[in-house]
Amino acid sequence: MDLASFIGFSVCLILVLGGMSSGPNGVAGALSFWDVPSVLITGGGTLGVLLLGVPLERFLKFPTVFRKVFFGSSPDMVGLVQTMVSFAEKARREGLLALEEDASQLDDEFLRKSIQLVVDGTDPELVKAILDTEIGLLEDRHGQNKKLLDTMAEMAPAFGMLGTLVGLVQMLQNLNDPSSLGPGMAVAIITSFYGSFIANVIALPMGKKLAARTGQEVLCRELMVEGVLSIQAGENPRIVEEKLKVFLPPFQRKRLEEEKSASKGGE
Amino acid sequence: MDLASFIGFSVCLILVLGGMSSGPNGVAGALSFWDVPSVLITGGGTLGVLLLGVPLERFLKFPTVFRKVFFGSSPDMVGLVQTMVSFAEKARREGLLALEEDASQLDDEFLRKSIQLVVDGTDPELVKAILDTEIGLLEDRHGQNKKLLDTMAEMAPAFGMLGTLVGLVQMLQNLNDPSSLGPGMAVAIITSFYGSFIANVIALPMGKKLAARTGQEVLCRELMVEGVLSIQAGENPRIVEEKLKVFLPPFQRKRLEEEKSASKGGE
Amino acid sequence: MDLASFIGFSVCLILVLGGMSSGPNGVAGALSFWDVPSVLITGGGTLGVLLLGVPLERFLKFPTVFRKVFFGSSPDMVGLVQTMVSFAEKARREGLLALEEDASQLDDEFLRKSIQLVVDGTDPELVKAILDTEIGLLEDRHGQNKKLLDTMAEMAPAFGMLGTLVGLVQMLQNLNDPSSLGPGMAVAIITSFYGSFIANVIALPMGKKLAARTGQEVLCRELMVEGVLSIQAGENPRIVEEKLKVFLPPFQRKRLEEEKSASKGGE
Amino acid sequence: MDLASFIGFSVCLILVLGGMSSGPNGVAGALSFWDVPSVLITGGGTLGVLLLGVPLERFLKFPTVFRKVFFGSSPDMVGLVQTMVSFAEKARREGLLALEEDASQLDDEFLRKSIQLVVDGTDPELVKAILDTEIGLLEDRHGQNKKLLDTMAEMAPAFGMLGTLVGLVQMLQNLNDPSSLGPGMAVAIITSFYGSFIANVIALPMGKKLAARTGQEVLCRELMVEGVLSIQAGENPRIVEEKLKVFLPPFQRKRLEEEKSASKGGE
Amino acid sequence: MDLASFIGFSVCLILVLGGMSSGPNGVAGALSFWDVPSVLITGGGTLGVLLLGVPLERFLKFPTVFRKVFFGSSPDMVGLVQTMVSFAEKARREGLLALEEDASQLDDEFLRKSIQLVVDGTDPELVKAILDTEIGLLEDRHGQNKKLLDTMAEMAPAFGMLGTLVGLVQMLQNLNDPSSLGPGMAVAIITSFYGSFIANVIALPMGKKLAARTGQEVLCRELMVEGVLSIQAGENPRIVEEKLKVFLPPFQRKRLEEEKSASKGGE
Questions:
Q1: Does the interface ipTM go beyond 0.90?
Q2: Is the per-residue pLDDT at C163 higher than 70?
Q3: Which of A15, A260, C206, D102 has the lowest tally of Cβ within 10 angstroms?
């Protein structure tokens, strides 16, 4: 679970609702921000235009997208390096075939497949080509989920603006009754508020979180490819570790060192 | 037929019309959004500027563009993988020449041409070069259709703004009659509304749908090239399948497995 | 002559003028859009800033730019493919030297030079390098003409805005005479209108047309390079045609086929 | 310490505070710019949306980011070239192994690691590959710190706008009391002011400073890689210096020459 | 001296001042555009934020930047081609060493260094590598000067807006005195005017001019590298000329031909 996403989203929601209630009318003022036609034209219009602009199978990814934002988690890069190094050691000691059993117990499908390819004795060039294509296409697919949110972030304010223009025209055509000017304009502006809210509190930040997750996942898989190819080439486990450590940010490198010396101390 | 495009476009249209009728004047209020000079300056101006800014042969692609958005369909990638694998098997069993007849019955011109090149014994390098150039130029041509819609999405709000500025100047020059201020400004704003509508409900989302279609088509052809080159290299059909499966998103891979086991079960 | 450019530009002009005259003051209202200080600050300022921001020799390209937009024409790609194929046939029958005379009669300087290089027996690598550099630099030079218009499209609204800010400040400083508020603001807004007009009706669309022309020209020359190199390599004319056909959009391929069968029928 | 950052930030702060106090109410007017609900919705909302949109470990980099902006310093490129050249001389005279001790006394971890790799007799190709990956990933990590500030610069005005829209709606719904119109609108606008301040005085310029620091650091490490590889290849120290001098801007080249002749003069 | 820069800048200045004086108050109206707190918050704030956002050594490049814009000049490409061709002839006749003396008399440091490298018998690969790195880093350094102006063009309107928001809040808080509304708002808007002026009349166009100068300089050096490498390879002077002519725009090619035939006629 991504606690930061929950907290961040709640903070935004509470602060915006608090801002709505901080007017002269208090909480009742916050209620007046709810206007069904405005919700329909902004929210419904945004969904409609997404249906029009995005292939159906991608539009149906919405639940997946939200799940990833709120329930995704950072991959354990340090553990991964340790696993790869232990595989490298085993392969050196017992040969590549010895990895078959370990591979079959891996959770990560990509790593399982990578090692299976190596165990099967596939040509290294081909292994690299297949895995790189797979990473590229994964990046592409995830990028399209982000694009779904980006399109949403683009269309919501546009529909908010459209609604505001409609509201302004209606208000201006009935200017003979000056007392209705204020509320009329307030309603006109509300769609802009909805559009801005959908874009800036929902679609944009979630798209960013998604992109960050994808980046981590891709980095993780590049580490796997690097490791698997080194194992296949029969490189020294120490060199493998050196090569893979490069993928870790400094603080994780330190953690790796600590865990290594801890496990050695425990020996 | 792309049902999602129809539904999405209708939803937007109904919601915007509903918003127009939700004012104090009801449906009559919606009618007052129709203003011939405003339609002319926004819609006509947008078309005029497209004629000026876009080569004529591309401008004439408008009907094609709309047809693709509303009647295009996603290519059947799973079926395509199956076809390629069956070709690989046949080529292994009976030789490349045996594919000539099958190729001539294919609907897709690109795949037909690809296989014909292989059957003709063209050099693999040359096959790849010709097909890659063809994909690149197809991407280019489709990209220009998208650019047509993007230019439209860029110019429509600009002309809406131009119309609004004209309307504002006219209104401000006749400020001595305050009762005309409201309606005058309403008319001025209507062109902005038209411009925003053309851009955000028509041009932008349709451009996105088109780009997504092009992406699918290109991916599909890259799969074909990969497959045809593997067949020409006489690779094992199992390897061919493994290589091509990479192009499928996870849920289609599952479908492919299911269909395979189903067809085996039926054997 | 590029009829579409003429028609498109005229349509925009007529519609905008029509919009100006559709106000309560009729044609007289359109005349009131002409304001000399506003024209000076927007138009003059835009030219001044272009002089400041763009090297002089590029600034002086303005007439060339407009001539290209209104009098440029699409290159005849189909005819070009036919010419190249006929050259390939001649070179095969009579040797490369036989092309010297044909080359000297070509209108296009680039093609003439390309063939001359081949006839001179220049090394293929060198031929490709020289021609690619030439295309790259041509693309660069044309790109700078487009940049001239893009800078214009960027600066004109900025100067319009600058004029409007000046006008607003003047108007607000003389607010004690409320009757002058309307006309004062109208004048202030007129510079924004001019800026928007220059950008959206002149500079932006013409820049796009120019870019499209450049794209066609570059594609055309890439076709020439591909063809000349194939001829130099002594490739089969049928292969040459196959290779070059790839550069044509589908409808032109069809035309090429028709003309070919027509000429065969006529034989 | 980066004095320019301190001075620049103080200047901005003082001028903005001065501007606030230059109104008719003097310093008391400046105090009226402090509005708790507005601070909460803009500042808090921006932080909330960053928590939602940015992985937690990157969000926690905020202190690091500010420390770098205010306390970072430009690397001493001239000294670095001198160090590398002296290493090249020593390696030529006494062999690569002689560098081991010098390396262990270096402050910079990257340079230490680079020389250790060379001393260990690692293959040059592998040295280059490992160091390039390390530079690439460092660039990536620093780029993400910049992205944190860029996201902040993007979201703060959005939340300012959101707050202004909320304020406008509240004000317009209570239009019957005209005397409250001014202050109501003033409060509504204050959130836009906060958002603009956070973006343009804090997030944007600090992000730029960070990017410049990263650029210098990367250039510095590219110089190290170039130098280390030249040393490993046993190149002439004069050539090494020539190669590395290229990385220096002209004024630093001059300084290098001066220091060289000074040290020679001192001999 | 770049006359176009002087004229362009003067034209803008005169037209804007003229616009200021064209109001009902005449020249006195222009004086009212001068407001010290506004100048401080916009101009000072922009400088402050540049100090914060840009490394100090780059910030101090301001005088260099302005000198380049107003006193830079286009390089003489035609003369350069002639020089290179004459070097090629001399090198062919008398050997590479004969160039040493000519090189030492060259004004351009880059060309001098290039030829010195060739005369020293440096390996062609290394010559190319060193010179390419040098060009790349020069492009980088000049690009950062442009970035300085671009940052200025980005921050000035932001500070103008900030000032306007401050002014609006002050004005709205004192709305009980309606007679001050106009002047208050005029002052508020003036900072926006300053920001727009700094960005659009100074920073943006000068940045563009700088980029154009850099482009010319880079092209010039690429020509030198191409020429020096051809000379080193001992290529025929006629081929060298052919290769270098490609770098010239058509009108300069014509001039080159004319000067050549003129000098021949004079022989």
A1: no
A2: yes
A3: A260
